[in-house]
Amino acid sequence: MKMNLTRRWALFVFLFPSLLGFLLFYILPFLGCGWYSLVDWSIGGSFVGLKNYVNILSNDLFLMALANTAYFVLLAVPATMFLGLLLAIVLNQKMYGSNIFRTAFVAPMVIPTASVVLIWDILFHTQGTFNALLTSLGFNVIDWLNSDKARIVMVLLYAWKNIGYCMVIFLGGLLRIPKEYYEAAELEGAGTINKLMHITLPYLAPISFFVVVISIINSFKIFREVYLLAGPYPHESIYTMQHYMNNVFVSLDYQKLSAAAYVVAGILGILIYALFRWENKYSSFHK
Amino acid sequence: MTLLNVFYTILKISFLGSVAAIVILFVKKIFKNKISAACHYLIWIILLVRLVMPYYPESSISIYNFFTNHNYKTEEIQSPVINNMSHNYINSNNIQSGVNSSEQKHFSTDSFLIADKQQEFANKNEPNAFNLLPNQSRYTFSEYTYDSNKSRFQVPYIAAIIWLLGVCFGAVYILWLQLSYSMKIKSLSPCNNRNIIAIYEICKSKMKVNKKIPLVMDARIKTPSLLGILHPKIILSPDYVELLMEDELKFVFMHELAHYKRKDIIVRWILIFLQILHWFNPVIWFVFNIIRQDSEKACDEQVLSYIEPNEYKKYGNTMLKMLDIFSGNNSIYGAVGMINRKKFIIERVKNIVNFKKNYLLWSILGIAIFSVLAVFLLTNAKQPPQEVIKIKYEAEEIGPDIELESVSKIKLLSNEQLLTYDMENRQFIIIDDEGNRIDINCEGLPQDFPVQLFTIDSNDYIYTFVSNTEPKIYVHTLEGEKIREINLELKDVNISEENAIFRWDMKVDSKGNIYLLIPQAQQASTQVFDPEGKHIKTLKSDGYVLMVLDEEDNLYTITYKDKVYITKQNPLKDEILWEYEDDKNLSYLRTAAYSKQDQSIYLAELNNNNISKFDPESQSLNKMINMDAILSEKTQDEFNFQDFAINNDGSIYLCVYNNKDNKSYLYKVNSRKIHIEGGIKELTISVRHLSPILEYAINKFENQHPDIVINIDNHNAFSWITSDMTYEETLKTLEESAKKANDFVQKINAQMLTGKGPDILLIDSIPYRRYADKKLLLDLKELMEEDASFDKSQYYSNIFDALEYKGKLYAMPLDFSYPAFLTNTGFLKEQSIEINDKGWTWKDFIDIANRATKDIDGDGTIDMYGMPTIVPERLFQYIYNSLDKGFVDYETGKATFTSEEFIDLLKMCENISQETFVNPDISEGDMQMEGIVLYPFHIHDFSIFYSNGLINADEVSFYGYPTLNNATYNFDSGEMYGINSQTKYKEEAWEFIKYLISEEIQCYQQLYSIPINKRAREIKIEDRFADAEDMMNKYGDLYGYQVTSLDKIKKQLTDNVEKLNEILPKLNHTNMNDIQVDEIIEEEVRRFFNGERSAEETAEAIQRKVEMYFKE
């Protein structure tokens, strides 16, 4: 829209405080980080160009962390979305206590991670609840957090926490679908599956893209739970990117940290850009 | 930013601005006709800038140099400055700090203050000061928070409030005016008169104004004015407008448009804003008026520049006509009218008449004046260099001739003389500053026992507590006359069981009420009696440690367990005024005193030999003096602190006992102010905990280098382990300590990353190898070689070599020890068990321990065990740290935890704790270790002397741990310090490090391990032998061991020292892990000992994780 100068100026004045904060605490550090990734030491280092990137990309540990993170995202995001959608569809019906259930599923999101981790630790400890159950049934003790099963535990934790989020957003999307379509479909004799496939899912598509993007970003944040459960050096299958970054920071290798951060930012950026492009195409196609 | 701060800033700006304004006025008067009106107007920008910004660069040509007072700003520092950094706050300036606790093997020699047999016995039961805190439990009041009674009605505060009220009033008034007028304006109709609009448009185009400025009619205003910043309008009055001719209207419009072009509206609003802020300054009001007039003149000038010269006169006439018509005042602040102040019309007319189109020359002159004024007025005066005054303390001995045998308490009389009691001669003595002594004979005082408890009251009467049969107090005057005898109604205390009365405390308040404190270690209670001896009350407590009375009869009681709790109460009125809590890890408070002069409480802490001051008003606990450092200037002998008193002008009297000649001495400590010329150099030292050695060294170093001020950042990042802790508690404390260490490392990391870290660091749990890789630490080896005065042969340079990393030395150790098994060789000989420490293995050790576990006297219970109980984690720590192999190679980045040796080690630690040769009654940290044969220990010279007493064996020796490699001899280093490579004061830092390892500091009595300075070690060994002989000759006792054969013991001691002498030059290895590796190992090992996994799995997990650590 065409804006005259005054209006633009007024807009700028109102946006300015927020913009200032964003600039100061987000953009500028990000750029500073970029600079650090191109020098060899943060205090008085010399410019080395892309050497840091080459270093970390040829580092086994970093690549393993990258693979772990990708694996986790590919596992956790679809699972959460699918379950979230399921729950949303189920809880969209008029049934007794749907509100209570909705609250119950969203509640895990608001509990602070540290408290959640306490309980999870008790559950999955080598001498914890699940193992006690297993031994009482006669099976062997499984070392949950220090073997391959660790990944499953983390996915479970992530899912438990974030299903509520997906569910709520899908619920919002479901509510927007006009009832008339369903009624029309019923008149024409569509069954449940048909209704699901041809009405619900297409209309949920724009929302789903949003959920996918947010879920991917959230799944990167699993570091908090892993760190609190298993410390800075967990089992290999759950050693994620942020572990690498965190540990490298403690060892004062600031340049590696910055390079790793930029790699992650780059990957995420490309991913999300691709998703948005696809979404545009999809929605314009469908319009 | 408190109100006062803002107020003071405004005052300052106002004052400086006024000065600037006057100068500008002056300058303008000089150049009145030489520069154009526009320049006159623009010069005022300087004033506006001056009034708005508070900060300017300093320059010597500033005009303000005339106005600064030349008192040098002085800062008084009580150096060294010790900053206590807890996780949630930082207290600075001489805060009492934590105490060395990481080595729990150092035993205090305080137990051996011997004045007479009774005391000796009592002293042995005294809790050991170094690694144990007496179990004081806390008296819990309801939570009273301290309310500081600072008067809220001081004058500057009132002035600030008045100013603020004025500002608010002004702001509200202006805003209201503006709002109300802008509402009215909205409803005004635009001008409809075509003619007028046409004239207006012509003017606009002539002056090249593009913005749409509507004309609005309002009957209420008098002069035509321009109004508004965002949406400017010109307001005309329809009635008056008709009175003007076309030309005159043209001039009016042009004048207003000129105002618009110059953005005068904005300037006016700035002026209003500033005027509100500086409403109290008449100069500002006056000057601002002049600014407004200048703006008019400048506008006139601008108008004139757009019209033909022959119209100038017409313009002037227009103005006069306007004056005629519109004789009222303009009451709208934000408006700029054509007429302001009749008087100045005359001036303006004059200007119009004299107007010439500007010459370039005058513009240049204008610019020149502008720049010169800017430079003069927009800079601040040069601040004079800050002068620093150091407060230093000096001790002088009182009366070198007074012969005091054994004095343990001193009291200050109202005439500033000291009252003491000599235990040896059983005599009360008064001593004055010159050292004259007057003996007092108190009549009627039972002479069979020495007086253990006495005090004085405000009338200078001596109260003596006597308790041979019943508790009584005798009251005497200073001449020795007995005034009365009080029978004390002592409740709940069995007098006959008490034999350490000297540990009690007694105070008398101004009304004669007597307070008696019986400390925790005995039958704790604190009781109050009236002057007749009748019991008034017992203060509910489990035992205070100290109590002090102030002049208003308020009682301050002090307890400490893990924190220091100071409570102020008035027991007779049953009031608790406040309670203060401080977690500075103080230990062993010995005495307290109240000072009338500054109304604070002084505490004497025995571990670091400090006196600290608690100031109730600012609620801060600060360190005052380090007695060791002060007294070491006067005497080289070692002494034990006994008591202190403070007189009315703040001087401190110390009473100390000299072990060598068994006499007591009195010192008076005065403070002295030293002016430091020139700049001071500040050295910052960051430590995890403040050891007594460092404290001693910094005090002495500062005395010798007056221009250096040392700041200590003490992070207090450790937790005590006391001997009464259970297994779980010990583990928890270890975890807590590890976490605190981790936090400390993070903090230091963050500081170093910013490039502003401390100059010197204590390298304890800091990953110095990483720092070294990043070139954050200086290479000390290089400094050693460059320094010609440094002689390597004076030190155990093999230790230096062993601590090298990649060929450079980054950490300078102050002391070290040799980890080995302390062995009861006498018993082993009896049982014909032999230890071959040249090649024995851990299996041999287990074997020997088993064989040593025996039931000697045949009563069915085992009397002698192989080892005390040590929790497996600690045992693992001991052995792992003392192994000649760390399983980690830092230089290559490889780890070998999956090797069999490590797995065997884990299994062995687990097994040992369950073996039968472990004594269940004795655990590490116990004071008496009788009943064990082998004890994992840190051997140093001092420990050789007290080992007999420790394990109560006739013959002791030590054997190095079973090694895996015969060529390595392990040692454990003590404190180590490194220098930050970014420090500004390299030489000073190196000087300090050198000083730390110099003979002077290394001979300090609190340095118990093996000093790195060879000569210091020799001196210490000589001293120890002398002390031991003395002890054995006088009492037949060697640190708790009853000596049977003097010669045998002497030979044993000499042999052991010789053995150590042989080993020391061979030491070539130490285990120092990076803190992350230590954490990994600790966590996995803990899981292993918990039974969660097997040894192989643990080793694998550690290996994997450490490999990850190295790969990063």
H and E string of chain A = HHHHHHHHHHHH
Q: Please give the radius of gyration of chain A in angstroms.
A: 24 Å
How far apart lie the N and C ends of chain A? 23 Å
What's the total count of β strands of chain B? 47
Tell me the name of the CATH class of the domain at 817-970 and 1035-1111 in chain B.
Alpha Beta
Overall mean pLDDT score of chain B?
77
CATH architecture type of chain A? Orthogonal Bundle
Low-confidence stretches of chain A: none
Structural class based on helices, strands and sheet pairing of chain B:
alpha+beta
Largest sheet of chain A: none
The N- to C-terminal Cα distance of chain B equals 45 Å
C-alpha-based Rg of chain B, rounded: 42 Å
Q: From the 3D structure, determine the CATH topology of chain A.
A: MetI-like fold
Strand content of chain A: under 5%
At CATH level 2, the architecture of the domain at 817-970 and 1035-1111 in chain B is 3-Layer(aba) Sandwich
The CATH topology label of the domain at 817-970 and 1035-1111 in chain B is D-Maltodextrin-Binding Protein, domain 2
InterPro entries (chain A): ABC_transporter_permease, MetI-like, MetI-like_sf
Keywords (chain A): Cell membrane, Membrane, Transmembrane, Transmembrane helix, Transport
Family (chain A): Belongs to the binding-protein-dependent transport system permease family.
Transmembrane segments (chain A): 12-38, 70-91, 103-123, 152-175, 196-217, 259-278
